[in-house]
Amino acid sequence: MKVVIIGGGIAGLTLGIFLREKNYEVSVNERYNGIPNRGHAFLMHGDGLSMLTDRGNPMGGKLKSKKIEAYSFNRPDGKEIKHLALNSWHCLKRVDVISYLYSQLPKEILHEGRIFSHFIYKDKKIIGAAFINGDIEYGDIFVGADGANSRVRDLIFGKVDFTPVQVKEVVGVCTNETVAANHPSVFTKYQNKNNGLAFGLIPASGNDFVWFLQYDPALSDINDSTPDELKAFCHKLLRKYPPIVNEIIQSNDFNTTYVWNTRDFDLMPSFHKKNVVLIGDAAHQALPFTSAGTTNAIVDAKTLMECLEKFDNYEAAFKEYYNLRNADVAKHIQMGRDLKKIFLNPQGHDDDDLPVPLIAQKEDTELVAKNKKIQVTYFTDPICSTCWIVQPQIRKLLLEYDKFVNIEYRMGGLLPSWDDYNKGKIQKPADAAQLWEEVCAIHDMPLDGDVWIEDPLTSSFPPSIAFKAAQMQDKEKAILFLRRIKEMVFVEKKNIIKWEFLKRAAFEVGLDSARLLKDFDGKAKEFFREDLVLSQEMGVTGFPTFFFTNGYGKQMVLKGYHPYEKFEEIINALMDDVKKEPINTDPKSLFTQFPTMTEKEFAFMCGISRDEANMRLVNLFKEGSINKFESKNGVIWMNNFES
């Protein structure tokens, strides 16, 4: 079977590579000669990148990319509104991607300078593609990969109705060594709060940056222009933006800069007709706010290839391809439109509610929690040593009983201040230092009491409030945040009252640290007070305290440290049909679930001895699969597996 691909951009080239590896006869036909320089650069998630690079590269070649580790969202006056880590996002120059894809295809199947004209029919079936230069390419299947203005789509399906252009983008690439040194891996965006005007800056490679100016043409507009006129236009719109923006504009070569009229069209009822099928922007186009276009093109190519492999009948393959792709495509189209509305009318949106378009939408954890049969209210505190040593039990509980149990974290307020603290033998920081050393020796979880000597905490309230601020953003990431600040204080001897450590922990687990600070100074304090009131009402006198409640209102309480069997006993007492899941003890699986682990946790979840756990962890460290932080009383092992 021969597949004729019309369009030699990223979608067409990728499909050609995938099909050729499955031994299809392939012809890729591109209108331009040589590698195009338009498009500059774009963002791509690691999932899309891996589809290109994780195939063994039988023909060699290396795809250049720049990992983008953080997103910073700011107002034009420089005030930072959001700052959070990005997981597996990369910036790639289009010329680098096209060059890489060219290296994966033999020259004889890539035909340049072919502008598509029309199809050739025989007995009402398409048998060939004709090009303006007189060339004809015959085949069995024809793929329209010729972009948003697809002539293949127009001929087969008719014209689509594009939405009107309400947002334009000026896009350029510049080289600036100074900016590169200060913004090595951060996607920085400045957006006006009162109208549709934004400037974005993304490191590409070396000292290069791709930048974009998004604007509402109702504010001001420019059409055909000289490079100098376009430069003056950008300066005019951005005159009140920070100095870095002006520096980028000054260092940009406007001879290669262009204005992009952004638009989209509704989801098509099908991506094929008989033996012609569409992929990439020819099949669907979302507005650029989603940064999904290139990844969608690659996913289209991979999905279509897999469907052709699965079905003997190509029409059945095309139908399956549409069924697999249409829901995601529809979401991206709608997401782009929603983001456009927010961009054009930003006044009615709170800063906290502004979406980060690069972050994938996750499952509604609130809904999932409501469907679980046992609710656990867990009262804890960031500096409670007993709450730290019970971590192995909690983590194993999540692995074996996650289908049945939902844990709700509440702060108990262990240490208001040393003036108000008088519990047992702990009267002063030095007493806490001694207790931690004793707990470490008994329970074999790393604790370093020297923090109480070197830089003692005056209260546990600030990190507790920070946790409530984290919960306001993302309840799942808030649990990671709590774990991280516990590691900081128990193992790394960090005084987690200090904002520098709370900010670092928030960033490391993927929270927006700028928002965390705002909520910390605002609503989070009230939520923390609510936790304190609830703990008094429920009679909590120590930590940890767990309240287990089933769907019929029956409740059981567990206070202090208990072996894992006690947790299981309560769960089985509250449910008749509970069945625990077997634990996948593959180290990569465990470290994906829990990015950091102590030796005791690893041994406990794997069901092996401490000596065996130590040997495995040391070997993983030598292989480079995990990293470690060593303290005088133990080690924290950290995930370094390739995702």
Describe the structure.
The chain is α+β, with helices and mostly antiparallel strands and 643 residues long. It has four domains: 163 residues, FAD/NAD(P)-binding domain (3-Layer(bba) Sandwich); 94 residues, D-Amino Acid Oxidase, Chain A, domain 2 (2-Layer Sandwich); 197 residues, Glutaredoxin (3-Layer(aba) Sandwich); 53 residues, Orthogonal Bundle (Arc Repressor Mutant, subunit A). Helix content is 40%, strand content 22%. The chain is built from 23 helices and 24 strands. The strands form five sheets. An eight-stranded mixed beta sheet has the order 3-5-4-12-13-14-11-15. A six-stranded mixed beta sheet has the order 6-2-1-10-17-16, with helices on both faces. Strands 19-18-20-21 form a four-stranded mixed beta sheet. A hairpin with a 2-residue loop joins strand 7 and strand 8. Helix 8 runs antiparallel to helix 9, helix 12 runs parallel beside helix 22 and helix 22 crosses helix 23. The protein is globular.
Walk me through the topology.
Elements: E1 2-6, H1 10-21, E2 25-29, E3 41-45, H2 46-53, E4 66-74, E5 80-93, H3 94-103, E6 110-111, E7 116-122, E8 125-131, E9 136-138, E10 141-144, H4 151-157, E11 168-175, H5 177-182, E12 186-191, E13 197-205, E14 208-215, H6 227-237, H7 243-251, E15 258-261, E16 272-273, E17 276-278, H8 293-310, H9 314-344, H10 365-370, E18 374-380, H11 385-389, H12 391-401, E19 405-411, H13 429-443, H14 451-454, H15 461-473, H16 475-490, H17 499-508, H18 513-520, H19 523-537, E20 545-550, E21 555-559, H20 564-574, H21 587-593, E22 596-598, H22 599-606, H23 610-623, E23 626-631, E24 634-639
Helix pairs in contact: 1-3, 1-8, 2-8, 8-9, 12-22, 15-16, 15-18, 15-19, 16-17, 17-18, 22-23
